[in-house]
């Protein structure tokens, strides 16, 4: 099946949004090395920059009409690498607040939604991101940044920060479950048509 559509004919494949997405993938690798070596402040900064480029590449692609099929595949893939990878690495840090089952929920939801999207869009259905998916991403990014920053401060940490870590991580997990349910419900509706 050809990846060229009327939507992106004449669009350079390696345009600014796709370059930003590729840079985000490189930042993900840097981030994982920083977490592994416990450079948590640098990791917090790199994660925040990577999350910012996610917003920027989407804005740029829509604003300047540079949406491509490559970008539609690459952008969510890189998002999943960063988020899932960060939560997996945080599990290895006992003071992060992230438990193994939480990372499994996050990774499992991403795999499920990716599989549903791949199948349904292959059948010609529109299975683009929903608002719950975008809010889920915000919640996950916020939880990762707060957890990384708390690891940088070490223990004992301020009580308010301890609460922020717990609340943000639980909010991310609950939003992950909720948004996964929204996508499954939507997929069932599309499959019935």
Write the layout of secondary structure elements.
Layout: H1 16-36, H2 40-63, H3 69-91, H4 100-122, H5 131-153, H6 159-192
Helix pairs in contact: 1-2, 1-3, 2-5, 3-4, 3-5, 4-6, 5-6
Any idea of the CATH topology? Four Helix Bundle (Hemerythrin (Met), subunit A)
Helices, by number, come to 6
Q: What is the chain-wise order of helices and strands?
A: HHHHHH
- Level-1 CATH class name: Mainly Alpha
Largest sheet: none
Mean pLDDT: 89
Task: Tell me about this structure.
This protein is an all-alpha fold. It has one domain: CDP-alcohol phosphotransferase transmembrane (TM) domain (Four Helix Bundle (Hemerythrin (Met), subunit A), Up-down Bundle). It is built from 6 helices and no strands. The radius of gyration is 18 Å and the shape is globular. The protein starts with 15 loop residues before the first helix and ends with a helix. The N terminus is likely disordered.
Q: What features would you highlight for this structure?
A:
mainly alpha; 193 residues; 6 helices; Four Helix Bundle (Hemerythrin (Met), subunit A); disordered N terminus; 0% strand; globular
